[in-house]
Recover the amino acids of this structure.
């Protein structure tokens, strides 16, 4: 075979190799892209441990829930959302009014008046639920949950606490209220565990720490 | 002779004035050199990378100066002794020109002798040498003070290289081949030669040899264009050597 013919063969081999390298390169780029797109194993493990901790919390909630919509809301709780500074000034004046309306001091009210207040509270809760359906907010959900809790309607209190929590899991109020509900049910250990989950997930928080301390005392 | 074989012979790497193609860069350098000679400067250095066209330029200048008292030394090893003997007996009142190609081959003793002759003022010596040799030469103080001009032959641009190839082919009525070469081909050639005229000659010589071989096997493949594949094969062959 002539030298130039050999070189021609070599030329085609080189060309094929070039194409192969290009295809391989593209493949590697896609692989790397795909690899970094998925969360890393470490973060997966962290999420898994967190999920385990939340698992009991989940089970408890599932037992109490029948409403399908509520179940959907609850699923949001399992997500660990990033810390977000909550702007308290942003709370609407309407909500503030509702709070004012809602705050009831039963100790200071005489027995006859209590009855009337109780009826007033029931009406207020229904109004609040209607308002919530029109304009869903964390504060409203929490307000409703507190209302049910005060009425010792623990089942609904739980449901609305979870609703509030699903809307802003970082805020401590829903966690505190949930622990109160568990305490009311006599489940002290679970209440502490729930609060510890908050600390593991979102870091130190004085309110939560004080609550744990008060439960232990 | 087939057209490709004929084209091949045009690019044989020899210093032949027939092959001189007046390019804008080389023409400017040539003019600078002629000006320095006409001003009767003592020592002029013509530098440039290997294959930049110094030898051809020097020969072109020699051709231009025909009629004057000019000596051309293409091989200092063989001719310098006779030239030195000649310089001894030159008339002091006449101006002479000595064009010395491949000056890097000169021994330091000869350099010194030539410098002494240049100092007499009746001879202009043009040394054509590589860049690296110039640095060594300038380290010697007595030389650096006597060098009046350092003229550098730069590598040719893409357009000049293209003109160089086309002009050579057109000069020899090879229009058909010129039409077969496109910008893609020239870009490929320039990527290898990087503006060196010697490298361009070597590659074009090899290219037409390759094309001639494949043309004889299958002429239909060369009806319109010359594929870059053949340039690649020519480059591979040159690199293998």
């Amino acid at each position: 075979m002539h030298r130039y013919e050999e070189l021609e063969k070599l030329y085609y081999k080189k060309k094929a190799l070039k194409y192969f390298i290009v295809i391989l390169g593209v493949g590697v780029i896609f692989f790397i892209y795909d690899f970094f797109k998925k969360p890393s194993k470490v973060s997966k493990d962290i999420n898994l441990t967190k999920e385990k901790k939340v698992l009991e919390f989940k089970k408890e909630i599932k037992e109490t829930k029948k409403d399908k919509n509520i179940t959907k809301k609850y699923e949001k709780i399992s997500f660990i959302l990033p810390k977000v500074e909550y702007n308290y000034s942003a709370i609407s004046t309407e909500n503030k009014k509702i709070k004012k309306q809602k705050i009831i001091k039963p100790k200071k009210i005489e027995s006859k008046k209590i009855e009337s207040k109780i009826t007033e509270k029931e009406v207020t809760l229904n109004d609040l639920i209607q308002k919530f359906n029109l304009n869903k907010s964390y504060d409203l959900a929490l307000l409703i949950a507190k209302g049910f809790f005060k009425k010792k309607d623990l089942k609904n209190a739980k449901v609305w606490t979870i609703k509030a929590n699903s809307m802003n899991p970082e805020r401590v109020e829903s966690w505190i209220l949930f622990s109160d509900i568990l305490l009311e049910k006599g489940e002290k250990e679970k209440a502490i565990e729930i609060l510890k989950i908050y600390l593991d997930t979102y870091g130190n928080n004085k309110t939560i720490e004080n609550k744990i301390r008060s439960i232990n005392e | 002779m087939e057209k490709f074989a004929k084209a091949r012979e045009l690019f044989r790497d020899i210093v032949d004035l027939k092959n001189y193609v007046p390019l804008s860069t080389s023409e400017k350098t040539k003019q600078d050199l002629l000006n320095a000679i006409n001003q009767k400067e003592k020592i002029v250095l013509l530098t440039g990378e290997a294959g930049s066209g110094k030898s051809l330029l020097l020969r072109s200048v020699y051709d231009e100066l025909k009629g004057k008292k000019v000596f051309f030394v293409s091989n200092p090893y063989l001719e310098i002794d006779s030239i030195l003997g000649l310089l001894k007996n030159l008339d002091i009142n006449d101006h002479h020109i000595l064009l010395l190609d491949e000056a890097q081959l000169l021994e330091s003793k000869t350099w010194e002798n030539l410098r002494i002759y240049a100092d007499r003022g009746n001879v202009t010596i043009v040394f054509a040498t590589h860049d690296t040799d110039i640095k060594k030469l300038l380290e010697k103080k007595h030389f650096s003070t006597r060098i009046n001009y350092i003229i550098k032959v730069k590598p040719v641009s893409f357009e000049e290289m293209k003109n160089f190839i086309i002009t050579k082919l057109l000069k020899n009525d090879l229009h058909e081949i010129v039409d077969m070469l496109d910008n893609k081909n020239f870009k490929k050639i320039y990527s290898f030669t990087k503006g060196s005229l010697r490298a361009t000659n070597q590659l074009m010589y090899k290219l037409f040899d390759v094309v001639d071989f494949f043309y004889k096997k299958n002429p239909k493949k060369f009806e319109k264009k010359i594929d870059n594949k053949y340039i690649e094969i020519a480059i591979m062959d040159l690199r293998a050597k």
